[in-house]
Amino acid sequence: MCDSEIIGLLGGRYSADERCIYIQAVFPCKATDRADSGSTDVEMDPIGQIYATEAITNHGMSIVGWYHSHPDFQATPSITDIENQATYQQLFQGEHHANKVSPFVGLIIGTYDHKNPTSHSIMKW
């Protein structure tokens, strides 16, 4: 738990027959260095992304998504989140099979939303 945003990749597999993504593990990544506190914006460090990608591949999985947190505010996607999701979807298009259908999920985790009536984090896909 922290008050700065975190970011990482989701490893797993996509079953075309079932049309289902199976997320098997999360792989945290370093964030890029920031001049501000990092509490409202985060970008994945490219070197950290390479290490996480290698780890996912070494475990026999594929990259099926990404995640990050909104520690002090609602887990609603920002414009940057939507743009990042579109970029990732395009980057990984066709990765899983030849017909170019490759779902790629984004997860935002809200950890400290004071409006949350329980102690569980809010997750928006």
Order of SSEs: EEHEHEE
**Which strand order does the major sheet show?**
2-1-3-4-5
Instruction: Assign a percent range to the helix content.
Output: 10-25%
The whole-angstrom Rg is 15 Å
Describe the overall structure.
- This protein has 125 residues and is α+β, with helices and mostly antiparallel strands.
- It has a single domain (7-23, 31-97, 108-113), classed as Cytidine Deaminase, domain 2.
- Helices cover 21% and strands 30% of the residues.
- The chain is built from two helices and five strands.
- A five-stranded mixed sheet has the order 2-1-3-4-5.
- Helix 2 links the parallel strand 3 and strand 4 (105-110).
- The longest helix is centred in the middle third of the chain and has 13 residues, at 46-58.
- The chain starts with 6 loop residues before the first strand and ends with a strand.
- The model has no long low-confidence stretch (mean pLDDT 83).
Can you lay out the helices and strands and say which pair or pack?
Elements: E1 7-15, E2 20-29, H1 46-58, E3 62-70, H2 79-91, E4 105-110, E5 122-124
Parallel strand pairs: 3-4
Antiparallel strand pairs: 1-2, 1-3, 4-5
Task: Summarize this structure as a short list of keywords or feature phrases.
single chain, 125 residues, alpha+beta, Cytidine Deaminase, domain 2, 2 helices
Short précis:
The chain has about 120 residues and is of the alpha+beta class. It has helices at about 45-60, 80-90, and strands at about 5-15, 20-30, 60-70, 105-110, 120-125.
